[in-house]
Amino acid sequence: VKVKIPFGNKYLDAIFSVPEKKSTYGVILTHGAGGDMNFPHLVSLSACLASHGVLCLRFTCKGLNIVYRTKAFKAVVEYLKHSDDYKLSGVFLAGRSMGSRAAASVIRHLSQEDNDDFIQGLICLSYPLHRPKLQSKLRDEDLLFIRCPVLFVSGSADEMCEKQLLEGVSSKMKAPKKIHWIDKANHGMAVKGRTTDDVMEEINTQVFSWLRENAELEHK
């Protein structure tokens, strides 16, 4: 289902992947610095989640400014929270690369503003912990503030997220967290000798099983 989400004086293009049965939880998903919501990994993940009963809303926000991207993500969260068509108990925020930074920033901002538990967790695909070859400047400040469960899916050869550095940040985080390393994958999740579909299937399986564990915790 295609929708236009109001954002300031313009609209963000978005697509709902709707499961057959009514969904209790949803995932909001966005892209990295390049590309848009039709990036193959996002399309694949949305379809996988919807087929397993999880509503997925993916959106496009062009812009390389992290503050702008964060505001856009916040507008999408508000839109889904107040949606009459999809009444959800909670959502997980997810993004690829810069999109995951925006998601983390939204969670930090919203947790400081209100205490409702609409946001259930964070999913970071290829979190860009640092710029290539600039390991001294880590983009970890939002991660250290977050309290909700966090899943990282990163390539072990990601030039923007050195394995030891992410493990170090993870050990300092107060949130329950899990890291799944895609062996030998780079920032774009490409692995020599493996097809894109094969890698996407591994990512989708990890995300769904983590979601199932964390959404179930809320039901008990």
From TrEMBL:
Annotated KANL3/Tex30 alpha/beta hydrolase-like domain residues: 27-208
A UniProt-annotated Pfam family: Abhydrolase_11
InterPro entries with a match to the protein in the record: AB_hydrolase_fold, KANL3/Tex30_Abhydrolase, NSL3/Tex30
Protein name: TEX30 protein
Organism: Smutsornis africanus
